[in-house]
Amino acid sequence: MAVTTQQLIQWKQQGRSIVALTAWDYAIAQLLDATGVDLILVGDSLAVVLGYETTLPVTLEEMIHHAKAVRRGVKNALVVVDLPFLTYQESIQQAMQSAGRVLKETGAQAVKLEGGYPAMVETIERLVQAGIPVMGHVGLTPQSVHQLGLRQQGKSPEAGERILNEAIALEQAGVFSIVLEHIPAHLALQITQKLRIPTIGIGAGSDCDGQVLVTADILGLSEKQPPFAKVYTNLRETITKAVQNYSVEVRDRQFP
């Protein structure tokens, strides 16, 4: 059974935790889907795979190209695609065109937009009215890296109140779920209890309705790990050893 946005909301009501991971290609997407991951995010953390320093250089074309490959590998999970930096902030019309292209060209079921400030809330409301499912994202928003840095957000009472109010405004605008990134656990709990829609945490404690991590991080493929990621295996080491063994055998004419 393919996962739907409505199902995620039902799972929150039932207290069933939501499992989310990222994917950028067919092979990984197929593996995640076969394992039973509920939500696959084609995140603009694609920047890491493409060798960029931040998420800012990722283009809509690059995102669509990778999202198509991911979608081809998925039968059951809900596929959500990040809209890249400056492909939706300029105007409602720009956001509509970018989101429309993603859904039409990739077959993904939803898009994710960062931020909960008034203009973004208005944009999201219009997208939802047009029939485009939207996932929200508050707290640390990586596309604002030059403004916010990569430090934890919402630590002061004022900052926490602002993030809570943004989350409420996004729910009222019609998002089906919200990513809470790198905020204190007590704030994530407060938001989770306040909202009817599911919260998906990343570095936001254990009280969210689900968790998402970058797949490269949990597999030990990333050069740098964020402080809130957990490494479940070390594929960098495994791949390095395999390639070294292969190289030795080829050079010694042991293979084939």
From TrEMBL:
Pfam families: Pantoate_transf. It catalyses: (6R)-5,10-methylene-5,6,7,8-tetrahydrofolate + 3-methyl-2-oxobutanoate + H2O = 2-dehydropantoate + (6S)-5,6,7,8-tetrahydrofolate. The active site is at 181 (proton acceptor). Its cofactor is Mg(2+). Catalyzes the reversible reaction in which hydroxymethyl group from 5,10-methylenetetrahydrofolate is transferred onto alpha-ketoisovalerate to form ketopantoate. Its EC number is 2.1.2.11. This is 3-methyl-2-oxobutanoate hydroxymethyltransferase. 3-methyl-2-oxobutanoate binds at residues 44-45, 82, 112. The lineage of its organism: Bacteria, Bacillati, Cyanobacteriota, Cyanophyceae, Nostocales. Signal peptide: none annotated. Keywords: Cytoplasm, Magnesium, Metal-binding, Pantothenate biosynthesis, Transferase. Its main location: cytoplasm. The keyword Signal does not apply. One of its GO terms (molecular function) is 3-methyl-2-oxobutanoate hydroxymethyltransferase activity. Binds 1 Mg(2+) ion per subunit. Coiled coil: none annotated. Mg(2+) binds at residues 44, 82, 114. It is found in: Cytoplasm. HAMAP family: PanB. Pathway: Cofactor biosynthesis; (R)-pantothenate biosynthesis; (R)-pantoate from 3-methyl-2-oxobutanoate: step 1/2. It comes from Anabaena catenula FACHB-362. Homodecamer; pentamer of dimers. Belongs to the PanB family. The keyword Metal-binding applies.
